[in-house]
């Protein structure tokens, strides 16, 4: 599904450009959830930004495909229409734009790009109520401007709401557990787990094992200095939680 081959990327301008990804390769098949863990500065968030097309990052080598299509040459909105979704570590505020207006506009823009009909207002409202109920989102919250005045937990739940409404093919969750208390973490994890599907892949980026207690990964990858240095089963995350990264980094040296 998502295949990354020898991907290298820099951030910054010209002589100040800094290499963050350094020959990273990764394969996430459809139906699987893979977790990426690693120390600060390893390149975890950079990987999510490069895959989804955030400006300021330049690919200097390698490639990435989604279902066999090269995504790195696409504009961000085209990647989204192909099914890429990024849940941000720090969701941005959009003053003046109600949540439901924003989400319905995004849904219809993606449908148009795929040659599909727009979702009708009744169908949108019905689906919105169902998803909001699963995530304990109050109906009044969906009428407010996107993320304006929301708590950290509310912002994260709202991102999962957007994800469930858009039904993307591939999910990238960048430290979705950041700033969540245990109840919000369970709610967010329930929403993510509801999206598990044989035709959908997920990449979960996290510092901590606790998220993986609720979202069970098929594989865990350790990222350091811009490349994957170790891959293992779910118990690798438990080892990292217990021992830290030093042991794994030493093995790879």
In terms of topology, how is this protein built?
Layout: E1 2-11, E2 18-28, E3 33-37, H1 44-52, E4 57-66, E5 69-70, H2 76-82, E6 84-87, E7 94-98, H3 99-113, H4 121-134, E8 145-146, H5 152-166, E9 170-174, H6 182-194, E10 201-205, H7 209-212, E11 219-224, E12 227-232, H8 235-243, H9 246-252
Parallel strand pairs: 3-10, 3-11, 6-9, 9-10
Antiparallel strand pairs: 1-2, 1-4, 4-5, 7-8, 11-12
Helix pairs in contact: 2-3, 5-6
Describe what this molecule looks like in 3D.
By secondary structure, the protein is of the alpha/beta class. It has a single domain (2-252), classed as P-loop containing nucleotide triphosphate hydrolases (Rossmann fold, 3-Layer(aba) Sandwich). The chain is 37% helix and 28% strand. The protein contains 9 helices and 12 strands. The protein has helices spanning 44-52, 76-82, 99-113, 121-134, 152-166, 182-194, 209-212, 235-243, 246-252; strands spanning 2-11, 18-28, 33-37, 57-66, 69-70, 84-87, 94-98, 145-146, 170-174, 201-205, 219-224, 227-232. The chain has a 6-stranded mixed β-sheet, with helices on both faces. A hairpin with a 2-residue loop joins strand 11 and strand 12. Helix 2 (76-82) packs across helix 3 and helix 5 (152-166) runs parallel beside helix 6. The radius of gyration is 18 Å and the shape is globular. The chain starts with a strand and ends with a helix. The relative contact order is 0.18. The mean pLDDT is 91. It comes from Hyphomonas chukchiensis. InterPro entries: AAA+_ATPase, ABC_transporter-like_ATP-bd, FeS-cluster_ATPase_SufC, P-loop_NTPase. Belongs to the ABC transporter superfamily. Ycf16 family.
């Amino acid at each position: 599904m998502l295949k990354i081959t020898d991907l290298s990327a820099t951030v910054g301008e010209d002589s100040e450009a800094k290499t963050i990804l350094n020959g990273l390769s990764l394969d996430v098949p459809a139906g699987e959830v893979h977790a990426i863990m690693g120390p600060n500065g390893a390149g975890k968030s950079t990987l999510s930004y490069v895959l989804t097309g955030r400006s300021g990052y330049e690919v200097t080598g390698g490639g990435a495909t989604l279902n066999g299509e090269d995504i790195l040459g696409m504009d961000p909105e085209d990647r989204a229409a192909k099914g890429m979704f990024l849940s941000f570590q720090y969701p941005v505020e959009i003053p003046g734009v109600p949540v439901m207006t924003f989400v319905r506009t995004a849904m219809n823009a993606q449908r148009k790009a795929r040659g599909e009909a727009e979702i009708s207002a009744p169908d949108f409202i019905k689906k919105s109520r169902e998803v909001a109920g699963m995530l304990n989102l109050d109906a009044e919250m969906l009428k407010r401007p996107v993320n304006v005045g929301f708590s950290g937990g509310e912002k994260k739940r709202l991102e999962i709401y957007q994800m469930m409404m858009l039904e993307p093919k591939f999910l990238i969750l960048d430290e979705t557990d950041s700033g969540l208390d245990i109840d919000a973490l369970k709610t967010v994890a329930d929403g993510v787990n509801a999206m598990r599907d044989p035709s959908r892949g997920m990449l979960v980026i996290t510092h901590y094992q606790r998220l993986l207690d609720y979202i069970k990964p098929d594989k865990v990858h350790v990222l350091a200095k811009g490349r994957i240095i170790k891959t293992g089963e779910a118990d690798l995350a438990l080892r990292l939680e217990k021992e830290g990264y030093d042991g794994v980094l030493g093995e790879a040296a």
